[in-house]
Design a protein that fits this description.
The complex is a heterodimer of chains A (299) and B (116). Helix content of chain A is 82%, strand content 0%. Chain A is mainly alpha-helical. The mean pLDDT of chain A is 88. With 116 residues, chain B is α+β, with helices and mostly antiparallel strands. Chain B has a single domain (2-107), classed as Orthogonal Bundle (Arc Repressor Mutant, subunit A), CATH 1.10.10.10. Chain B has five helices and three strands. Chain B has helices at residues 2-22, 27-37, 49-58, 82-106, 109-115; strands spanning 25-26, 62-68, 74-80. Chain B has a three-stranded antiparallel β-sheet with strand order 1-3-2. The longest helix of chain B is centred in the C-terminal third of the chain and has 25 residues, at 82-106. The radius of gyration of chain B is 17 Å and the shape is elongated. The chains are: A mainly alpha (299), B alpha+beta (116).
Chain lengths: 299, 116
């Protein structure tokens, strides 16, 4: 096969954004088509170069073909959509029903999240995995935050060792996710600005005072509501076919949910803080696209 | 040309199902058959066939199976499913009704008088 046609297949591969087994099948099928076409064109008297050029013209835009194949596969079933929304629903319930105070519930949730993540990763990283994957990183972040409350001296030592290791783990998982499809990385990071927003609204301060827990209790139903909004977003995300609609949905949902957080935070989230959160949200949702491009160019 | 493209787009799935109903076929074969049987009328960007095949397969109307040829090469043949057969039956009767109605209106008035 000529270089031009190999580039054609590379371009299809780059824009497919499907799981590796399906991607392999699509490319193999197109490759067979190209071989048949080239053979027939050469038999009709065209040179190798002319045949390759004609073949590329007959196939049409590689990006368009890839986008249309993506759209044929991008819509998940209702079961997949509900399963993908499940971690947001469970996390919302933890707060809405004050289950977060029970260690059994927290441990149960942690075990469930980890089990689903391991299963999904092993099954070839389907779309429903990524919201669960986001929550599996939460204990890593939470443990880092809790280190701040260790006695002085110990906390610095722990932070110096823990934070680089935690960052390395989060970056490695995010990079792997971006390589699959940057949009899944955005889906994975979707709840993070909302969690940061509620964290800022609860204002834990330097120690664990009683009012910190009380405030978390008071905000519980609204925290639950914001995670219910995220669950609805995930359902719509899985059911949508077109990429631009998926991107718009994530950004719109992020904006609405953060506004909801600011509204119910009872004035504890100032306008500058909300604006900063919106910028963080936009960076988290859209920067994976840039990272993907960077990863592609660096090989 | 754009009108023809729109017409083909609207009936593309039916055309594919019709061909595969007669015998299992692979992508390149479908394109060549469509071109040959329509005497060159159905000619389009070949790459766009594959999204249609994948869409039909996802809908359960056809099923793709890899087959190894004696030469060792592999080809993906598409077979029509039970659901596809039912779908094709419905589409076929819709098309025949549509064509009948179109003919009644589109044919020149002189032809109608001749029939009378």
């Amino acid at each position: 096969m000529t270089t031009a046609l190999s580039h054609y297949l590379d371009s299809v591969r780059e824009n497919l954004k499907l799981d590796s087994s399906l991607e392999h099948e699509v490319i193999q099928e197109l490759e067979t088509h190209i071989e048949d076409e080239l053979q027939e064109l050469k038999q009709s008297g065209l040179s190798e170069e002319e045949a390759a050029k004609t073949c590329e013209t007959l196939l049409g835009s590689a990006k368009l073909v890839a986008r249309q194949i993506y759209e044929a596969h991008s819509q998940g079933s209702w079961t997949q959509a509900l399963f993908a929304a499940m971690p947001h629903l469970l996390f919302g319930l933890l707060f809405a029903l004050s289950w977060w105070q029970g260690i059994i519930w927290l441990l149960g949730m942690l075990v469930l999240v980890l089990a689903v993540v391991v299963y999904g990763w092993w099954r070839g990283k389907p779309a429903w995995l990524f919201p669960w994957l986001g929550y599996s990183l939460l204990p890593v972040v939470s443990a880092g935050l809790l280190l701040l409350y260790l006695p002085a001296g110990w906390s610095w030592l722990a932070i110096l060792i823990y934070i680089p290791m935690a960052l390395l783990l989060v970056c490695a998982i995010t990079t792997k996710t971006i390589k699959r499809d940057w949009l899944y990385s955005s889906l994975m990071l979707l709840p993070l600005p909302v969690i940061i927003g509620w964290f800022m609204a609860v204002e834990p301060g330097s120690k664990f005072p009683d009012y910190w827990l009380q405030r978390l209790h008071d905000f519980g139903p609204w925290i639950g509501l914001s995670f219910l909004a995220l669950a609805a977003t995930v359902v719509a995300f899985i059911r949508l076919r077109k990429r631009w609609l998926k991107v718009s949905l994530l950004v719109l949902s992020g904006l609405i949910t953060l506004t909801l957080v600011a509204f119910y935070a009872d004035g504890r989230l100032s306008i500058p803080a909300l604006l900063m959160l919106i910028i963080v949200m936009l960076i988290m949702l859209l920067s994976p696209a840039l990272v993907e491009r960077l990863l592609r160019h660096t090989g | 040309m754009a009108q023809r493209r729109e017409l083909i787009k609207g009936s593309f799935d039916s055309l594919i199902l019709c061909l595969i109903d007669q015998q299992p076929m692979y992508g390149y074969q479908i394109i060549k058959e469509l071109e040959k049987r329509s005497q060159g009328y159905f000619r389009f960007k070949e790459g766009t066939l594959y999204p249609a095949l994948h869409r039909l397969e996802r809908a359960g109307l056809i099923q793709g199976r890899w087959q190894t040829l004696p030469s060792g090469r592999q080809r993906r043949y598409y077979h029509i499913t039970e659901k596809g057969l039912h779908g094709l039956e419905t589409k076929r009767s819709q098309w025949l009704d549509f064509l009948k109605a179109m003919n009644l209106i589109i044919q020149p008035v002189s032809d109608l008088h001749e029939v009378d």
